[in-house]
């Protein structure tokens, strides 16, 4: 069994229903930055499903002013650091609590805080307890009425969840607003905003025939950057109506942007609060990626209205119930918005890149946990790529297994059964199974077992009988917390394995399994149900030895092991009808080449590049029938962190050198083609962020980045001209990045040209965008991720930038742009042999922890994979982790991360 007795550890197995339910809440806020008073009147009833006992409410950093039960003083209570216990309360009563908190002093950005002089809240997961005493758990759902009172001049706008029912003036220049949310909700969905804000408005008639008011609230100077967010919201509303039959249930839906925010955005009922990064966009300050991310995040938060808010989680172990499902929904939304099949594939490739670069390492490291974790010390540490992105893959597998219509039937049943409830991942799986009359018991292991399964594939062709036998064997050793569980024996997963067979001419072969009648339709892609440890599938009528196209569309979050030859991969890259696998073949080819280069570099040998690889890439670059966005994906080499994961011992310096070497070789060998791509993919007319134009820019700017690898100094001028003349941030920033990366690189030939250009352009960029914090974040991030060489250490640049007047640790976006970009986005510099990166990491984790534990804990994770590195780096990393762990006053957040890493 797992140890659940460690101090402070919360275990899934220990769930008990709450002793009381809170039916209604009336909150009154007297907003004041240093001392806000909250009056909370709650109707409580004993929970028939509870186990009796006293009433213990959560509460943190609160000052209790008064307490009354049914309007009378109640002497039987205790207040502690974590909450308030009412001893022997009645079975049904009204509790009135008055308490105070300090929003201005709140640097954790959880609960009620001040940003840019305005008030904001963040309650998920457990921030409401910093606002008032409450049963701050998702299975307690209540109806809220909220009164806000504040100075009218300083806080002209007063917003909360639901509908505005009353507003008016008060003596002493104050005013008030009363908001009612008609839907029951858990406390984590509560929100208020107060301050000097303006909004763009739209009205739409929703699928229920009612008019809805939509608003995007921002600071006055940002009003002209809200159109894209509003359009994205309207698209999201329409998409959820069409694809899932889900209609916006409120008369009013608001999005508010705030620049101090711990994460991307938050789905508070009817009052979504967003990091400015995922709201504000115009051609001058946002890139194509920013526009895409805004659409995705606006969609994601909106989709939570049904998957998360109407149906919520019983406890935080079920987080993926809402997050995995909602990420899946936003991925599908973005894919549909791409408008073409090829666009969908590009989106899928992007999503899989993230999964492999971030989730696979998590699933192999000390924080590895199942999609539904078994225990945690701090729940904020479990908003992970496993819960989100792997969770989305798990939901996608239901759709792959049940088909789009079957999946929709399952979703409909899920809402029919559970609307207004707080439920579990098992309830979701049961709805999927019951709506389709199928058994998904084994599928449940995706929720309980951690780790990335490996599927090894072997094949045999029998010429006389024209049969092809494909054997799939799965394995998934214990990882992370599973290693401590001596009784655990891992069981095979239910893996939907999509595949095709390609003939010599590059065409798909119709797929017929042994025993199937000859007349039955034979599709060219089939999803095999791999449920046992090893299974053989026999295909008949296969005219000759085919080339297998495995795991088409990445139908399951697994690692496929198969001995492809180099020419097989080149063939697949040129011919596979599945665009995902065409891309995948190129990535495999590049990975194999890069790992060979790493080995040569480590052995001090002369590196050499296989001409096959160069020719395969040339074919893709020249193929004008392929979508430019797809070509850009296919010609982007695997990331350094991904390559590190493919090695027994990660050697960041050698990986960086190998990747750079291959980039230079590709640049030189395909020089003519890159130049043509650069010149032929300029987009005429005014900037539009649509998928087709963005794809052209992606290919053009990729070409620029390759061309800048060559010692041809004229390219420096080309980049500088693009930087100066660009009418949009995508092109301007790509040119700046090309200059900066060249400036930092050891290209002797034009050191004299590249470096000054980079410095001038960086200075120009700063002055141009001084008043645009999101652009300045890009400026910091680019410098943190610049290349280094022997004489040029990026850590020095980063330390210098920390002294820049525009730098502050208190703003999470700014901290991420400089510190995280360096520690996670510049592996070869962060892992410098002298350990200077780790010294910096220790300092920053500790400094951040004193301000904002959630952000600090994220940074702490950049040493997760320490055991995988070369021995000297490994020892230095262990030392750094021990140094942090030795601090007595660490937050639970950071404590959990470093102690798990060292365990
Ligand atoms: N549900 C929020 C995440 C809250 C994170 C708290 N540490 C945003 C989202 O996933 O939509
Ligand atoms: Zn979410």
UniProtKB/TrEMBL annotation:
Source organism superkingdom: Bacteria
Domain Peptidase M1 alanyl aminopeptidase Ig-like fold as annotated: residue spans: 451-562
CDD domains xref list: M1_APN (cd09600)
Uppermost EC category: hydrolase
GO biological process, one term: proteolysis
SUPFAM superfamilies, sorted: Leukotriene A4 hydrolase N-terminal domain (SSF63737), Metalloproteases ('zincins'), catalytic domain (SSF55486)
Peptidase M1 alanyl aminopeptidase C-terminal domain span: 567-903
Pfam family, one: DUF3458_C
Zinc as UniProt keyword: yes
Its EC number(s): 3.4.11.2
Keyword entries, A-Z: Aminopeptidase, Hydrolase, Metal-binding, Metalloprotease, Protease, Zinc
Signal peptide feature range: none
PANTHER family xrefs: PUROMYCIN-SENSITIVE AMINOPEPTIDASE
Family: Belongs to the peptidase M1 family.
Protein name: Aminopeptidase N
């Amino acid at each position: 069994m797992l140890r659940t007795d460690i101090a402070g550890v919360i275990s899934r197995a220990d769930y008990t229903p709450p002793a009381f339910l809170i039916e209604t809440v009336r909150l009154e806020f007297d907003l004041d930055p240093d001392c806000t008073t909250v009056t909370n009147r709650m109707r409580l009833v004993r929970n028939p499903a509870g186990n009796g006992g006293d009433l213990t409410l959560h509460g943190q950093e609160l000052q209790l002013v008064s307490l009354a039960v049914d309007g009378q003083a109640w002497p039987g209570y205790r207040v502690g650091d974590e909450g308030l216990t009412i001893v022997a309360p009645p079975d049904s009563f009204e509790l009135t609590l008055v308490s105070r908190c300090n929003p201005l002093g709140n640097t954790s950005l959880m609960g009620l805080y001040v940003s840019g002089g305005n008030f904001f809240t963040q309650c998920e997961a457990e921030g409401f307890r910093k606002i008032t005493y409450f049963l701050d758990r998702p299975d307690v759902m209540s109806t809220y009425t909220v009164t806000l009172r504040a100075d009218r001049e300083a806080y002209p706008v007063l917003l909360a969840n639901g509908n505005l029912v009353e507003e008016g003036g008060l003596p002493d220049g104050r005013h008030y607003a009363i908001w009612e949310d008609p839907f029951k909700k858990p406390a984590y969905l509560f929100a208020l905003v107060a301050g000097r804000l303006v909004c763009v408005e739209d009205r739409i008639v929703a699928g229920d025939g009612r008019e809805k008011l939509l608003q995007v609230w921002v600071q006055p100077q940002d009003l002209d950057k809200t159109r894209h967010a509003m359009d994205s919201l309207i698209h999201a509303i329409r998409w959820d109506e069409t694809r899932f039959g889900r209609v916006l249930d409120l008369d009013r839906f608001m999005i508010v942007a705030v620049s101090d925010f711990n994460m991307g955005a938050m789905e508070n009922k009817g009052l979504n609060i967003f990091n400015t990064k995922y709201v504000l966009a115009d051609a001058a300050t946002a890139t194509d990626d920013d526009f895409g991310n805004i659409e995705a995040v606006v969609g994601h938060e909106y989709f939570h209205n049904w998957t998360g808010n109407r149906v919520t989680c019983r406890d935080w172990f079920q987080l993926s119930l809402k997050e995995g499902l909602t990420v899946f929904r936003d991925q599908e939304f973005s894919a549909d918005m791409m408008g073409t099949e090829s666009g969908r594939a590009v989106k899928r490739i992007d999503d899989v890149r993230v999964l492999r670069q971030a989730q696979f390492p998590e699933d192999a490291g000390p924080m590895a946990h199942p999609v539904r974790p078994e225990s945690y010390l701090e729940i904020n540490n479990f908003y992970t790529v496993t819960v989100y992105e792997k969770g989305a893959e798990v939901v996608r597998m239901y759709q792959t297994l049940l088909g789009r219509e079957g999946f929709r039937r399952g979703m409909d049943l899920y809402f029919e059964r559970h609307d207004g409830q707080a439920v579990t991942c098992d309830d979701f799986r049961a709805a999927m199974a019951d709506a389709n009359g199928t058994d998904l018991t084994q599928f449940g292991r995706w929720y309980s077992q951690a780790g990335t399964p490996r599927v090894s594939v072997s094949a045999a062709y029998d010429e006389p009988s024209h049969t092809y036998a494909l054997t799939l064997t799965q394995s998934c050793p214990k990882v992370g917390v599973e290693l401590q569980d001596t009784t655990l024996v891992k069981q095979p997963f239910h893996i939907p394995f999509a595949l095709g067979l390609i003939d010599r001419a590059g065409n798909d072969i119709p797929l017929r399994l042994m025993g199937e009648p000859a007349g039955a339709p034979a599709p060219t892609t089939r999803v095999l149900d791999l449920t046992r440890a090893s299974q053989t599938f026999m295909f008949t009528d296969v005219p000759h030895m085919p080339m297998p196209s495995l795991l088409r569309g990445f139908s399951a979050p697994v690692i496929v092991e198969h001995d492809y030859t180099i020419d097989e991969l080149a063939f697949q890259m040129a011919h596979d009808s599945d665009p995902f696998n065409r891309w995948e073949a190129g990535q495999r080819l590049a990975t194999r080449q890069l790992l060979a280069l790493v080995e040569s570099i480590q052995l001090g040998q002369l590196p050499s590049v296989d001409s096959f690889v160069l020719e395969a890439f040339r074919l893709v670059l020249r193929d004008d029938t392929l979508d430019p966005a797809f070509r850009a994906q296919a010609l982007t080499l695997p990331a350094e962190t991904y390559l590190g994961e493919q090695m027994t011992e990660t050697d960041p310096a050698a990986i960086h050198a190998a990747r750079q070497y291959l980039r230079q070789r590709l640049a030189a060998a395909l020089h003519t083609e890159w130049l043509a791509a650069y010149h032929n993919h300029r987009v005429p007319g005014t900037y539009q962020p649509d998928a087709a134009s963005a794809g052209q820019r992606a290919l053009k700017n990729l070409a620029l980045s390759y061309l800048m690898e060559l010692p041809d100094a004229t390219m420096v001028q080309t980049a500088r001209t693009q930087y100066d003349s660009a009418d949009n941030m995508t092109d301007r920033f790509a040119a700046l990045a090309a200059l900066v990366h060249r400036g930092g690189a050891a290209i002797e030939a034009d050191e004299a040209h590249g470096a000054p250009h980079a410095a001038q352009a960086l200075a120009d960029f700063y002055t141009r965008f001084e008043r645009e914090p999101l652009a300045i974040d890009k400026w910091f991030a680019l410098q943190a991720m610049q290349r280094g060489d022997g004489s040029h250490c990026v850590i020095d640049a980063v330390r210098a930038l920390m002294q820049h007047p525009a730098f502050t640790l208190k703003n999470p976006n700014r901290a991420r742009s400089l510190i995280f970009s360096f520690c996670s986005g510049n592996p070869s510099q962060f892992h410098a042999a002298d350990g200077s990166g780790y010294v910096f990491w220790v300092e920053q984790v500790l400094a951040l922890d004193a301000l904002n534990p959630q952000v600090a804990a994220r940074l702490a994770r950049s040493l997760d994979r320490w055991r995988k590195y070369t021995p000297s780096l490994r020892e230095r990393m262990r030392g750094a982790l021990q140094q942090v762990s030795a601090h007595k006053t660490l937050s639970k957040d950071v404590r959990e991360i470093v102690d798990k890493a060292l365990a």
